[in-house]
Each structure stands twice: as structure tokens, then as C-alpha cells.
Write a structure and sequence with these properties.
Elements: H1 3-12, E1 43-45, E2 52-54, E3 58-62, H2 66-71, E4 82-86, E5 91-93, E6 99-102, E7 111-113, E8 115-121, H3 130-133, E9 137-145, E10 147-148, H4 149-157, H5 163-166, E11 172-174, E12 178-179, H6 180-183, E13 190-195, E14 198-204, H7 212-222, E15 230-232, E16 240-242, E17 247-252, E18 258-262
Parallel strand pairs: 3-15, 5-11, 6-18
Antiparallel strand pairs: 1-2, 3-4, 7-10, 7-16, 8-9, 8-15, 9-11, 9-12, 13-14, 13-17, 17-18
This protein binds manganese (II) ion.
Length: 263
Amino acid sequence: MNTVDRRAVLATGVLALAGAATQSAPAKAQAGPKAMFPVPATTIPIVGETDVFQVRRIYCIGRNYAAHAIERGSDPTREPPFFFQKPTDAIQNVAVGTVADHPYPSLTKNYHHEVELVAALKSGGANIPAEKALEHVYGYALGLDMTRRDLQNGMAAEKKPWEIGKSFDHAAVIGPIHPATRTGHFTKGAISLAINGTVKQSSDLQNMIWSVAEQIAKLSEAFELKAGDIIYSGTPENVGPVVKGDVLLCKLEGLPDMSIRIT
Ligand code: MN
């Protein structure tokens, strides 16, 4: 009896006879070193399921609506999609029917909203063809790519990484994930954001320069995608500032609304 077998016997209290092992206690996870300071997994609720979606990586696509690309100073007809990431634990879950408190972050004086469709992957790969890309999508959610615009712009002007403008605590606001088996895939539909009842952003998913399928295809050229990856698919035009006390209401045709209050 080797060390592992002996440990299993001790753990289960079963007197294992040779030959009985195939039928006895299920294989236990290999006992490895434990994390000294365990980090909780980041998860997103799934509508209609008790299980949750564990987040692996958060990808975001930049300037994916022509009118927003123009307002950010680029030519949408010539630029391929570009991507950035937010840290996984930047997720802030917002339950349906609630107004979640969202803390105004440090360092910024120009904090912007960007309402976006989010795709959540159940599988992945490298160099995924666009025609096959939607097979990897588990579901969709409504999200906010919150942005410290002054920091983003300041760093961009100095040709430095603008991570500080995009990647910070609570910067990835998201509603629950809706399985695509129930909603279908999102290629069109109204998307909007209102502040205190006044509509600020209003467009249609059809105005995306790169569809979700194309985003997955392009992204998978640069990174091997995997289950748990989520993709913020870009925001329409008329991004703008929020201040403490503002209530943001996000809408996407086919999904429940999502709302936060800046605190
Ligand atoms: Mn964005």
C-alpha cells in the first residue's frame, strides 16, 4: 500500500482490501499544498440556475461602434478591433430588480459610463473561425465598462498604458448571465443607458462594427480563449461623466434592466 492509498484509507475509515479499491471511496483530489491566503473565486449568477458562472478573464473591446470611435478620435473604417483586460475581481454583480451601490473610485474627476453587451464563454480555443464562434458562447449579460476617463486620456497622451483608467476595483459592473439557449444570440436590439431618467446612450447592437462572433474570432488570434472568459463588446456613442448620487439605468432589448447608484 503506497502513501496515497494509506491516506485514503485513513480518511474514509474503510478497511480497503486489495481488489476492493475500484469500488470503494471515490478518488480524492490529490492532496497538494494549500493556499496560505486563499482567494475567493469570482462568479456571476446565472438566471434560472442554482450553479454560477466562474469568471476566468475579462476581455473588453474598444471602439466597436462607429459613432463612439469617432467621438474618441479614431477612424472606425480603418481600425481593426483592439482589446484590453480588466482584472477578474473587478466584477461587481448587480441583481435584477435592485439598484446596487457603486462606489465612485479614487483618483478620478471624470468618471464615465459605458453600457455594453457582454458575452460569456463556455469553451474556447485559438484561431476560432467566426462561423464557429457562437458555439462557444454560453450566455449574455448587460454590463458597464466603467472608466476613469481623465486617467485613461492622460496616460494615452503620454503613450503610457492606460490600464489605470480601465482596470480598478468594481470597474466591471454586470447583471446576471442569461443562457443563450433561452435568449438566442444577440446580433441586434436596442441598447441604452439613462442617468436620473435622462437617456444618454442609445443605439442598437446592429451598429457594432465587429459582431460578437467576429470579436471572438479576432480575440482568439491573440489569446487562447477558455470557459469562464467574458467579453465586454464595446459601447455606443455619448459616453459621459457620472457623479455621486446619480442613478444609472441600463437597458438591452431581450434582457432585464440593470441599475446602479453612484455612491
Ligand atoms: Mn468599453
